[in-house]
Each structure stands twice: as C-alpha cells, then as structure tokens.
Amino acid sequence: PELTGSLQYDKFSYDFPKVDIQITLTAYEGLKDFGRTRFEFNASLKREVLKDFNLTLKGYESYDSKPPTEGSLKNDFGMSFALGWTY
Questions:
Q1: pLDDT, tens digit, 9 for 90 and up, residues 3-48
Q2: What is the pTM of this model?
Q3: Which of 84, 79, 83, 4 is CA-nearest to residue 43?
C-alpha cells in the first residue's frame, strides 16, 4: 500500500501558434515499506513553428529512495525531441 498525490498542469492553444503543454508530478509514499518515497515527473511541450509543422520536447524523471534491487540507481531520466507535421 502507498499514499499517492499528484499535481498536473495543462495548457492548450489552438490559434497560431498552436501550443500544447502538459506537466505531471506524482509522489508515492510507502505505508508498508516506511521511508520509501518515489516521484514520477513527466513534461511535454509541443509548439507549432510554421503552419502544420511543430516541434515537440518531452522529458521524464523517476526517483526511488529505496530501489528494489540492491545497488540500483535511484534516478532515471530521459528526453526526446521531435519534428512533426499535421495534416
């Protein structure tokens, strides 16, 4: 069992330039495994740069204060970048 809390921010704009922003932070506190705390962070930004062409940047971060495997890293993170066309 875990105690969970989450915060989320969303922003959308459908006029030029179109913008789509999504940010989420979720926290998990272990009730059975006291002292184990986990966080999940996700962010996405998509913006139209020319009509129907957009840039997208996404990132995530995961943290676990007591990973289940001994010696594992406590953090994991990544980012991606994309060019897109909408028709």
A1: 999 999 999 998 999 999 999 999 999 998 888 999 999 999 999 9
A2: 0.87
A3: 79
Tokens 């495994």 belong to 33
Least Cα distance to 80 among 56, 53, 49 occurs for 56
Cβ atoms 36, 30 nearer than 8 A:
yes
Cβ–Cβ < 8 Å for 1, 31: yes
48 forms beta bridges with 54
Burial class (CB in 10 A: 0-12, 13-18, 19+), 19: middle
End-to-end alpha-carbon separation of the chain, Å? 45
